[in-house]
Amino acid sequence: MEPRMNVAEAAPALYAAVRALDGAVMKSGLEKRLLHLVKLRASQINGCAYCIDMHVKESLADGIPAQHLHMLTAWRESPLYSVRDRAALEWIESVTLVSQTGIPDSAYAAVTAAFSPEEIAKLTIAIGTINVWNRIAVSSRMLHPVDRAVAA
Q: How far apart are CA 67 and CA 70, in angstroms?
């Protein structure tokens, strides 16, 4: 697979604005662990290899247990995730797949039971932000780094 374009070079001001939004999300007060789950789960749903690679590495570096990352695609069947995690994961999936889910009342009920209105707003913006990054990376075919020793 060959990269298509470099979005940062083609539209630097807009790319910088997305970076600024991402920075604001990181400083929003949402816990770092939750932001890692947001970024990784949305990237998995969107099939963004570049972002999955990056967010797994960042999550591990920040002390998220590897098992929590490995089991993320099967979070409903795993006891590793708290009620708050589950509400967030349901919200992440509903918002990321909005054209399929319509964001059902059940997802909203779960997230409102675990998060304040301010936290839900921040969580929703965090989800939207990673979805923008995923769309940039997938559409431009950004390639994740490959460890040649592992690839061989």
A: 5
- Phi then psi for residue 77, to 5 deg, are -100, 0
Question: Left if phi > 0, otherwise alpha if psi is -120 to 50, otherwise beta: which for 29?
Answer: left
Model confidence pLDDT, tens digit, residues 68-82: 999 999 999 999 999
| Residue 150, pLDDT above cutoff 70 | no
- H helical segments located in 1-152: 7-10, 12-26, 32-46, 49-61, 66-70, 83-96, 98-101, 105-114, 117-140, 148-151
pLDDT-derived band of residue 151, with 50, 70 and 90 as boundaries?
Answer: low
pTM comes to 0.94
